[in-house]
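Exam revision sheet. Question 4 asks you to relate a sequence to its structure. Input first:
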Amino acid sequence: MKVLILGGYGVFGERLARLLVRDGHEVTVAGRDAGKAQRLADELGCAALRMDRRTDLHVLAGHQVVVDAAGPFHAYGDDPYHLPRAAIAAGLHYLDLADNAAFCADIVALDVEARAAGVCALSGLSSVPALSSAAVRALCGDQVPQVIDTAILPGNRSPRGFSVMTSILSQVGRPMQVWRGGRWTEITGWSDPRRYLLPGGLIRQGWQIEVPDQLLFPAHFGAGSVQFRAGLELAVMRYGLAGLAALRRWLPVPITPMVVRGFKLAADLLAPFGSGRGGMSAMVAVAQERRFWRLLAEDEDGMLSQVHRASL
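Answer key, structure tokens:
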């Protein structure tokens, strides 16, 4: 299959490119930095090209699938679905790794034209909501959960992309809507920490942050409450963000590229500490019991998953 990966030299795009090349697909590494795209393409023995998803859409021709791994922000001005519409018009499948809640929820507007073109246009093909929703469905089956509680808890040595850091920092200390007790409630980003157990007895702390799960799961699963948290392994990083959240509750400090670069520099300096161990957790409260799925990842690879039940 001929696959164009936009942002193919980024944290997630590069990993996907390596896997697809390994499996024998024809991959094109694309992005605004032609040098980075070419260096990775030379290493993998595949094609490279410069592409800006706002303007250079003629380069879609000749491919069968376009994967958008360029980050969670879709700055297309008045048309946030500029790229997927172009992909559909060119007869390509569109697959998006972004976890922007509104973008994932509203892509359903393209369903009719995608079906008419015989292609798919899918968003959120990442840990959330793709993997988290699969775990929740497996846990609750056809039953309606009272509570859904999921978390992503990476190790400190997991790679950090600039776009992901920008997404998290922009939410810290700012208002967000969550579904609690059958109604929408306002909280602030990076608040209400909770401890989660992962396989092997690993305990990590997660803090509330916005992902598509909170927007999609209430209607999709009929849940009474939906919670999601993300965590960082090192306490200095977790509580550093908590301090920023406290500041931004009262003073809306803008998250500029310079601010993100400063945080990324600090994170890179702390990278040798901690571990490469992290994971995911999903819990549903159904029929007077809690059902858990937990995944342990070691150096980016899933190693062990567990499912168990406990009475409420």
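Marking note for examiners. The chain has two domains: 2-122, 127-311.
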